[in-house]
Every structure is written in C-alpha cells, then in structure tokens.
Amino acid sequence: MKISSYLEFKRDSAKGIFDHRKNPLLLIIDQQLQVYEKVEKVASNEFEEQIVVIIILCACNNFLESKPHGSKRSLAVEKIKYQALYRLQEIDQLKDQHRVKAQKNWDKLRTIFKGKGARLGEEYWPETITPHFAGVHTSSAFKEWYTSTSDEDFITWLQSTYIPRELHSANNLNKITANSLLTKRVTYLDESERQIYKVTVINGLFQDHMGNIFDTATLQTNFSGKGWGIFVLSQTHELYVASHKIAELHHSSLSNGAPVLAAGEIAINQGKLVSMSPKSGHYKPDYDSIYRFLYWLSKKEVDLHGIPVITSIERNNKTYYDAYEVMLQGGKSDGLKAISEPKIKNALATMIKRPAPAPPTANNSPQTTPSGYLEPKSFTNPTPNLIHRPAPLPPITKNVKDNSGYLEPRPRYKPPIIKHYIAPTPPPDPRVIQAKKNNPDIEDIHFF
Question: What are the tens digits of pLDDT across the range 40-78?
Fold first, then answer.
C-alpha cells in the first residue's frame, strides 16, 4: 500500500475555502510527506524508506493525541497513520524476503564450488569475493552475518557494520582482526598471473616456467618452514608452487578458488623431489588427493622410492612414510612402517654453504701495540706466480721551465726519413763481354 501524497493529504485535511494550516504538528506531517515522496523515488533500499515512514507515524500520533477525534483533519491524519502502519509491515516482509533470498543465493555457491578433486572449505568462500578479505579473519564475522537479520550482502555488512564496531571494541584481539581486514587482502591469480608459479616435470626433474631447474630453497610455508613451498595440482593437471604468506598468498590464490586435484606442501632440491605433505587449511585434501598427486608424479618419471611423505592433514602429525608404498595403498598409510624425516635444511644448506674462514696464523693474526690498538695485518700473496701484472709505462715528460721562467718549447714533430729503394745493377752478360773483345768497334750488342 502506498501512502497518500502531500497534495492528497492537504486536500483531505482542508477546512473550507480558506485553509489556515497553522498547527505545527500538522505542518510536520506535511513536511514529512514531501520528504517521503522524494525518498520513495530515489531510495536504494527499504531502510531509508522505513525511517521516514516511522517519523510520519510518530507525527500522526502526536497530532491525534492533541486534537479530538471525528474532525475532518483528524480523519485525514488517521488515514495517513494506517497507511504508514501497513507500509511498515510490507517493508518488514520485503526485508525478510531479501534475507531469505540472500541466504539461498549463498547456498547456491555449493554448486559453483563443486567439481572433481578437493573443494575449497566453506569457511573460506567469502575470501573468493572481491576485495578478497582473508578467510582466517572473516570466519566469525560470516557466522554472525548469516544468523543476523540484516538485509545487506556480506561484504557491505562487513565494511559498514562489523569493521567499524570492532575497531571501537574494548577487546584488543578484535581490534587486531579489524585492522587486518582493513590492511590485508588475499591475492587471487588469474590464468596469466599464475604462470610465473607454474612448474613442469620433465624426465623426473622439476623445472620452473623459464625452463630452469626448480628448487624450493628460497621458499617457506607456515607449517613446514623454510625450504618448503605450497602447491596445487589443477584440474587440467598443471602444477603451481609458491611461498606461503599468511593472509596474502594461499593455496586458493594459485587456483583462484577453484577445486583442485591435489594441494599441500612440497620440498624440491635441485629439481628432485625431497618430500611432500597434504597440509592445506583451505582444501583439506583427503587420501584420494594424495594418491592422485603421487600417481601423477610417477607418470612424470619421478622416482618415489624412499621419498618421505606425510599422509595426515593434522598440524601436529609429522609421521613420514615411503611415497611409493603410500601410492600403492591409494594414498593411505595403514600398516606401513614410518621412515625418517627428510633432511630439508641440510640438503638445502649445502647449496649456499660458504667456505670457512682460514685460521689465524702468525703472519695475519692481529697484534696489539703498546697503546692498545690493533696493528694492521701484513698481507702476503699466497700464489704470487698466478698474478702477472704488466710492467709500468715510462713516465711522460712534461714541459719544464727554463732559467727565465718560461716553458721550454716542445720539440716539433719530425717525420721519419723514408729511404727510396734503389734497385741493384744487374751483372753484365758474359756473351756481351766476349763479343766486345772480339769486335771492339761495336758499341751496343743485344742478345734476344
């Protein structure tokens, strides 16, 4: 039901030709009806309309308490009052319908997150919604919103109601949670953005997206620590490995919240598998996920014999079993003998191990002077024959001043003397000599 407009109420409550509306209570009703007409047109939700209707209802009650019933104006005011009451009931029903609709829409997410493999835990579903608040901080807030009567969506309610309330809370833990919601966001990577974390397995060796030998020495996780990385195996059998950052980069970041075939933590040393575990709070992998990942590795020619793996997702369980035997039992470890833990730190420390410093000797050990200061060390080249330096260039002569104080002129450039080549005179032909002896009168004799 719609509430009468200002003009309709003015016509119904008029007294004769000359309508003198000097009653302040009546003027308040006139004013609120004009406000209601504007709010009804532009209101984005029922909350604003509900506030104006309550004000109209209060103004009508105040007028009726001060004036006798039965008059023309009183009847017009009562009409507005009952219209306002009926409209309030309609708004409450609409809010309930919107609330039920919001809960049903949220329940529909179960069909979205269904798929082959491990599914994202329901407590982390709000994390997939932009702006990607960390699920570890929104789990309690989501439960409160889901059981509340608010008709706002979860993200709007979180930003407008929950965070401001917790910031002014007396509980320091609630303040820390609210500050984390304001400052931290979980990164969700699309297909192109997560390519830098893609790892391929060729002939049993792990390689990064550039084709280089992959290693997790520089990565770390919240559970296993340094030398480990979080991984997901997508439904298209693509492996992604990255470093774990709480409230910033999770397993769901690498898969963009989609279901995965397997998830957990992995340790790789120089391209070779060292160990793995199904530790993932977002996906909570089961035995089937462990089996799928180990079987996928075996098809990539990764040697699983003797590789220690964890089969439990419990945080305090660090019992390792042989990966090959676990694969043969479908990802389970029932009846298997536990093996020793992988030496992740020792295996990775050798990659960056620096040579130990040389022990101090008599030549290079620091000595103190009588004043207490250290004497400078005397350095001796251990391999003098391996260092060959070129001989120093001769000093360049510069202009010097003569006795008079003037600079002596530099010697002019003298070009080198080039001697022309003079060909040697060939020896005389013996036939010519013999012919001149026989005939002295002949001057030129030529033989051809």
Answer: 766 555 667 777 887 888 888 888 877 766 677 788 888
197 and 178 share a domain? no
Does one domain contain both 98 and 217? no
The answer as to whether 438 is a domain residue is no
Q: Is residue 444 part of a domain?
A: no
Q: What is the number of structural domains in the chain?
A: 3
Nearest CA to 267 out of 315, 318, 308 is that of 308
Residue numbers of the domain that contains 139: 133-183
What is the DSSP track for 61-78?
HHHHHHS-TTSHHHHHHH
Shortest CA distance to 255 belongs to which of 206, 310, 187, 184? Answer: 187
Element (H, E) at 262: strand 262-269
Other Cβ atoms closer than 10 A to 429:
12
pLDDT band per the 50, 70, 90 thresholds, residue 352: very low
- The span from the CA of 59 to the CA of 429, in Å, is 150
Which helix (H) or strand (E) element contains residue 322? strand 320-322
Same domain, 163 and 100: no
Cα–Cα separations (whole angstroms), residue 157 to 139, 143, 149, 225, 404: 14, 12, 11, 36, 97
**Angle at alpha carbon of residue 121, lines to 115 and 125, rounded to 5°:** 90
39-48: long-range contacts at Cβ-Cβ below 8 A with a sequence spacing of 24 or more? 45/151, 46/91, 46/94, 46/95, 46/151, 47/151
Grade residue 206 by pLDDT with cuts at 50, 70 and 90. Answer: very high
Do 27 and 158 reside in the same domain of the chain?
A: no
State whether 171 and 201 are in the same domain: no
Answer yes or no: is 123 within a domain.
no
- 3-class secondary-structure state, position 382: coil
How far is 260 from 250, CA to CA, in rounded Å? 13
The DSSP element (H or E) to which 29 belongs, if any, is helix 24-42
**166 contact partners, CB below 8 Å, separation of at least 6:** 174, 175, 177, 178
pLDDT of 37 over the 70 cut: yes
Instruction: Give just the sign of the alpha carbon dihedral 215, 279, 198, 226.
Output: negative
Mark whether 92 and 155 lie in a shared domain.
Answer: no
Q: What CATH number did the domain enclosing 90 receive?
A: 1.20.58
The helix (run of H) or strand (run of E) holding residue 141 is helix 135-146
In a domain, residue 274? The reply is yes
